[in-house]
UniProtKB/TrEMBL annotation:
GO terms for biological process: DNA-templated transcription initiation. SUPFAM superfamilies: Sigma2 domain of RNA polymerase sigma factors (SSF88946), Sigma3 and sigma4 domains of RNA polymerase sigma factors (SSF88659). Keywords: DNA-binding, Sigma factor, Transcription, Transcription regulation. This is RNA polymerase sigma factor. Coiled coil: none annotated. InterPro entries: RNA_pol_sigma-70-like (IPR039425), RNA_pol_sigma-70_dom (IPR014284), RNA_pol_sigma70_r2 (IPR007627), RNA_pol_sigma_r2 (IPR013325), RNA_pol_sigma_r3/r4-like (IPR013324), WH-like_DNA-bd_sf (IPR036388).
Length: 182
């Protein structure tokens, strides 16, 4: 089993190696998607940001050579694309939580458990929506699989790496308080 080296993957992808490109997309697509979704874009808009971010990498493939900084570059590019989209729209589109929750599949066989879980999820996402924007964006970004690194989160959200842990703790505390009051 070989380890993934983003610098080598960038070089090979710029030379036309499809497997190298596929490995880059597989490795970083969660980060790009989480960054787009952290702006509370609708699924279609987040998909546009996702696609535009990868297109920017294709355009800059011969210039981007720092594999260690690729995650930060992609997160920053996705952030800029999302901001550009919001500016073009002139308003921020809220996330359609009902659509999101309908897409989530329950592993439960009992209808009662499915209904209860859907209600708990609805209440959770409503509470996340009531958090300050910074908290909402951070928790949404951290709720992806795989969870982005602190460096990638910092680049995507525009906050210092050292403040992510304490900010996360404060945000989760606020979320617990909101959930306890419902």
């Amino acid at each position: 089993m070989t380890t993934f080296d983003p610098t080598i993957a960038l070089i090979e992808a710029s030379d036309g190696d499809q497997r190298a490109w596929d490995s880059l997309v597989a490795r970083y697509s969660g980060l790009v998607w989480a960054t787009a979704r952290s702006f509370r874009l609708a699924d279609a808009d987040a998909a546009d940001v996702f696609q535009a971010t990868w297109f920017r990498l294709v355009e800059k493939l011969h210039q981007v050579r720092d594999g260690a900084g690729l995650g930060a570059w992609l997160a920053t590019t996705a952030r800029n694309e999302a901001i550009d989209m919001l500016r073009r729209r002139g308003r921020e589109s809220p996330t359609d939580l009902d659509e999101h929750m309908a897409a989530v599949r329950s592993t439960s066989d009992l209808p009662e458990e499915t209904v209860l879980r859907a209600e708990e999820d609805r209440l959770l996402w409503q509470a996340v929506g009531r958090l300050p924007e910074r908290c909402s964006r951070l928790l949404r970004a951290m709720g992806t699989d795989p969870v982005p690194s602190y460096a990638e989160l910092a680049a995507a959200l525009g906050i210092p790496v050292g403040s992510i842990g304490p900010t996360r703790a404060r945000c989760l505390g606020m979320l617990r308080g909101l959930m306890a009051s419902t």
